[in-house]
Amino acid sequence: MNENRVDYLVAGASHAALSALAAIRMHDPAGSLAVLAREGHLPYSPTVLPYVVSGRSAPDRVALKPAEYFARNNIAFLAKHALQSIDACAKRVHFADGGTMAYGKLLLATGATPIIPPIPGLKEVKFHVLRTLDDAMALHAALPRTRAAVVLGAGLIGMHAAENLAKTGAAVTVVEMQPQVLPGYFDSEAAGIIASVFADNGVRLLLGHKVEKLANSAAGCTLTLADGSTLDADLLLVATGVAPVIDYLAGSGVATERGILVDTSMQSSVADIYAAGDVAQAQGFYDGRPLVGGILPDAVEQGRIAGMAMAGDPAAPAYPGSVPLNTYAFFGQQALSVGSQSAGEVVLQESSGREYLKIVMQDGRLTGIFGINRPFDAGIMWQLILRRTDLSAVREQFITEPQKTARQLMSKLWR
Amino acid sequence: MSAYATIAFKPDRCNGCNECMSACAAVKGSAGQIDSRIQIVAANDSFELAMCRQCGDPKCVAVCPAAALAKNEGSGVISWDGGKCVNCLLCTVGCAYGGIVHNAAAGHVVKCDMCDAAVAGAPACVKACDQGALQFITSARIYNEVGDLEDLFVPGLSGCQGCNTELIMRHALRRVGPETVLATPPGCIPGMGAVGYNGLTGTKVPVFHPLLTNTASMLTGIKRHYKRQGREMTAMALAGDGGTSDVGFQSLSGAAERGEEILFICVDNEGYMNTGMQRSSCTPYGAWTSTTPVGERGQGKSQDAKNMPVLMMMHNCAYVATASTGFMEDLYAKLDHAIAASKHGFAYLHIYSPCTTGWRFPSQDNIEVARKAVETNFVMLWEFTPEAGLTLSRPLDQARPLTEYLKAQGKYRHLSAEQIVHIEASLAKNVAFIEKLAGPRKPATAQQAAVRA
Amino acid sequence: MNAVLQPKPNYIVCDGNEAAAWAVSLAQVDMVAVYPITPQSSLVEYLAKFIADGRLGAEIVDVEGEHSVLSVLQGATLAGARTYTASCGPGLAFMFEPYMRTPGMRLPMVMTIVTRDTLTPQSVWGGHQDAMSVREVGWIQIYCENLQEILDTTIMAYRIAEHHDVMLPVNVCHDGNYLSFATGRVELPDAAEVAAFLGQRDVNWHVALDPDRPMAVDPLTGGAGGPGPALFVRYRKGQCQGMQNSLAVIEEVHADWARRFGRHHAPLVEAYRMDDAELALVTLGSMTGAAKDAVDEARARGQKVGLAKVKTYRPFPAKKLAEILAPVKAVAVVDRSVSFGWNCGPLYQDTLAALQASNIPAMSCIGGLAGADITITHFARVIEACAELAEKRSPVDTLWLNEHD
Question: Are the Cβ atoms of A22 and B43 closer than 8 angstroms?
Answer without folding.
Answer: no
